[in-house]
Design goal:
alpha/beta; Rossmann fold; 8 helices; 6 strands; 14% strand; hydrolase; HAD-like_sf
């Protein structure tokens, strides 16, 4: 792979382009907790907040639009993605539901985050979407997604370092701490 050539980059949205801790204040507000992002050591926030899956799904149904509208940008994602836009194909593949496309596109426009395509799957299973779009690499924050994509597609995965994805990683998955670090690594491919 030569980063001087055009790449098709698969990119998760929540916790990747948006700040990974952005859901915690809203969950604290709704469930009367005072948890810190660093305490969220499980991706499944229902477990962290000691609520049922049904309660979490209901909460997301009630608060998803606000969450997606108000989520802060993750670091310098906007700058890096703008730098890539004319050279690489940027495809956002997210577990968000299709009904949130308008609020998602609005967020991208307000934050000047460019895209070639946004695919909202309504599921964490991103494998078929990534395969169908022939992604050359993927940027993700959910460990299970990273493992599945790396193993099935045999492509590099950049996994944002978060409290909820700590585990030994196979060689195709590289833990990263910033968008700038990803930009530098992609330039080296």
């Amino acid at each position: 792979m030569n980063a001087k050539q055009s790449l098709t980059i698969g990119i998760d949205i929540d916790g990747t382009v948006t700040d990974p801790g952005s859901m915690v204040p809203m969950m604290n507000e709704s469930f009367g907790k005072n948890l810190r992002y660093e305490e969220c050591v499980d991706y499944n926030l229902a477990t962290i907040y000691n609520i049922s899956e049904a309660e979490f799904v209901h909460w997301l149904e009630q608060n998803g639009e606000r969450l997606y509208r108000e989520a802060p940008l993750h670091g310098t994602a906007d700058q890096v993605l703008r730098n890539w836009y004319n050279r690489h194909r940027l495809i956002y593949i997210s577990a968000r539901e299709q009904k949130h496309l308008a609020v998602t596109e609005d967020w991208f426009h307000r934050h000047a985050v460019p895209y070639h395509e946004i695919a909202l799957l309504g599921s964490h299973d991103k494998l078929a979407a990534a395969k169908e779009r022939n992604v050359d690499l993927f940027i993700e924050d959910r460990l299970e997604n990273a493992l599945q994509l790396a193993e099935s597609l045999q492509i590099p995965i950049f996994l944002f370092d978060t409290p909820y994805n700590q585990s030994p990683l196979p060689p195709l998955i590289r833990r990263v701490t910033s968008w700038q670090e990803i930009a530098e690594l992609i330039d080296q491919l």
